[in-house]
Amino acid sequence: MNIFRTILQGMLKKPADAANAGQSDMAYEPENVPGVKPTLVHTLYEFQDCMDLTHRAYPEIGVDVLYFGHLVDNHQLAQDVLNPILHIRADEVHMLLRQTQFWPAADSKELIEGILSGQVAIFNGADTYLVNVSGPKERQVSTSESETVITGPHDAFNEQAGACLSLIRKRVKSSHLKVIKLSVGEVTKTDVYILYIQDIANMLYVREAIRRITNIEIDAVHDSNMLIQYIDDNPMSIFPQFLTSERPDAIASKLAAGRVVGIVDGSPSVFSAPTSFFEFFSSSDDYYQRWMLGTATRLLRFLAFGITITFTALYVSVTTYHYEMIPENLLLTIAESRSKVPFPPVYEALLMETTIELLREAGARLPTKIGQTIGIVGGIVIGQAAVQAGLTSNILIIAVASSAIASFVIPSYVMSASIRLIRFGLILLAGLWGNFGLAIALAAIVIHMSGLTSLGSSYLTPVAPFKLEDWRDIFIRAPFGLLVKRPTQAAPPNKVKNKMRR
């Protein structure tokens, strides 16, 4: 064992770097773990073959500086680090490093992580210091493209966790807003921040969210929509169990309602939990308009949900098995329209639904102006050509187009995509068993959602379990004077949010 240990230590030494540092007799610490004293040799070995690492040596004063140029603010680097070092003597270095912007690195792990996060490492003999001059280029705060509103704030989160935190802090100016920092990913070491408001959020949900995130053992996490798939209550479900949003005002309202919020560094989407199925049909616009307009718009979204999942399937069911449900005048029109179509209604419907999805995906991937042209021109040309060629009927084109338009009404893109996929299953069952198959499919969806949970809370709250008082802000948007209590799903210790009396 001693022989193998000697060979291993010999392999881990890097003579070239040691010679450059004037410390050729120093051995490399084999593991980057807390408690290991940081040294220049060890740090250079950790970053070997990293050509973007900048190493500045000042042998006349015994100082070495390490940093990544693309992670630091060059102006702040020159002002706080490089210029002071260039204009001091060797006996003044100790006094310079005692200034508040420099702090000693506790161990090698802290040093490595500091350099990777945009800090500058300064080596002076046996002492090692870090100074924060990070200034990575970041996207400016702009409007949200996926959650547009007519009235209300238009700013949106960007990919920098610090910017996301600042946007939330500007709206929630309370010392009770707590932030817990976690790290996910053995390779990426992505920062994840858990936010909650003390005395409003239920700590059971906070601890459960932290437990699930800390138990993740993977190499990389790049986005919040990726992270929540690892902490879902039911990963096999098609329905999203965490609500994601790019809007700071929406997330601030979730915090005030007692929910737990998560920010993933590098992602413009922030997630909140626990959530229910009905929350995905709410929009910030509902609260910035008069309550009657907000209520009408919200009810319209639930109507759109029913249309988008059943309209095409109902067409297939009726035209295949249940002609008696069609009025006589309309029946003649449908019969004439389908007289030249060689396919059964189920194949006809699947063909057109697939075509619509192809156009939708093409429009999303192409540049904005070209995508809009493809969506409009492609839909008109292909639809008209399909009818003239006898591949489909006019009535089906109307049904498919209505279903597609209704899917756009749902504010959440993730929920909208899930519903579109469900539509194909309903079409297949309607083609097999007619209305009976359609009823079976709808019952299966309800049964499945009844068994779903979000952080252990029922996914169908406030319908199951039944909480009538929560209906004021689920199916309708009641006047603010009636929205007295926070949602019961979050089980907040402090239930009252509106103490105004009129």
TrEMBL record:
InterPro entries recorded: Spore_Ger, UPF0353/GerABKA_families
Highest taxon in the source lineage: Bacteria
Segments traversing the membrane: 299-323, 395-414, 426-449
Keyword terms of this UniProt record: Membrane, Transmembrane, Transmembrane helix
Keyword Transmembrane helix: yes
The UniProt record lists the keyword tRNA processing: no
PANTHER family: LEUCINE ZIPPER PROTEIN 4 (PTHR22550:SF5), SPORE GERMINATION PROTEIN (PTHR22550)
Similarity comment: family membership: Belongs to the GerABKA family.
Name of this protein: Spore gernimation protein GerA
Taxonomic source organism: Gordoniibacillus kamchatkensis
